[in-house]
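Quarterly update from the structural biology core.
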Amino acid sequence: MATTVFGAFSVLKDHVKFKVNQNAIVIDNLVFRLHYRATFLLLLVSTILVSSRQFIGEHIKCITDSGVPPKVIETFCFFMSTYTVVKHMNATAVLDGELPHPGVGPASKTDAITHHAYYQWVPFVLFFQALLFYVPHYLWRKMEGGRLNMLVSGLHMAALSLQSETEIKVNDKIKVPSKQERDEKIQQIRIGFINRLHLNRPWAYGLTLCEILNFLNVLMQICLIDWFLRGAFINLGPHILRPLSKDEIDPLDVVFPKVTKCIFHKYGPSGTIQKHDALCVMALNVVNEKIYAVLWFWFIALAVITGLGLVWRALTMFLHARSTSFNKFVFSTACPGKYNPWNVLKVTHEYYFGDWLFLYYIARNLDNYVFKDLLQRLAEDLDSRRHVRYKISQPEVEEELMLKKM
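Predicted structure, tokenized:
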């Protein structure tokens, strides 16, 4: 059994990485990652579960005394839908032995019945939903264009290079730059940031747009599933949590019946149409009910968290240039350490929100000491900018580096 489980999920090994990459550049936040990592993975795993027969056996098994081969009826009922009779969704009748299963019993032409055909589409819908949760991340990566990676790559271990004059190779992937390389890299960030001052608005608004897309997407997904399950998803969570009395049907049995009916028609020996009743065990619904119960709680929690994330983004837009204590808090969490970046207060009074947000993500990807060094130099640049409008040129950087070496 363990071999089949690992075999089923082995298709994800090339697409989902559980190991944290120490050199990965952060270009988004935790809320964003809950969408394109956690939810994307949850939906992919759900798709595999409902598509794999080794976990629950055959998805449908039907019994009938018609003489028709069971495989024929099972295939027909799976693709043409099954049904339950509304008037027989009676827990008391089942407990009293009047009915074998909820919703299963004789029905006339006037009795209301509920057809169940959604299970045919569950794996396709789940996979489509997984793709939708990945789309905002894909769009943001295209908008971001690797700008942060070009600036801060190679500085993850820079705090260890304070006195080292040569590069230290820890392993094939991790290297500690020399002090000179660290200073040159900081100067490159300084050039890239100052020369693009007030030009970071598209970058910041692109991130905000994708965060809004995440929120709209999770709301749309809730509505999509509710439509897919014919209005049964919105109130699924409260119905599950509500204690049931003895004479009430489990709401999961109403939406995901375990036993249903199916009618198979065929020609008899004389050419007349014969109708054969079949009783079908829907093993797939045992998995479906667990998946959609989990998705209800997860999507509601994700919608709340994403909404709070948008409130936080609105606060950053409003307070980044107005509140000293706000900036102290934000940048101390972005780049924790014993050095509190006080100079950021001077910097953020000069920059627009796009510049502030770009600086915040630079802080997220740098060591505390390195970021403090960068911030001090940016503050000095702003002092000069107040008097003369200028851009930093490469000769100026080289001259500064030469002075530092002397």
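Residues 1-6, 157-168, 387-392, 396-406 have pLDDT under 50 and may be disordered.
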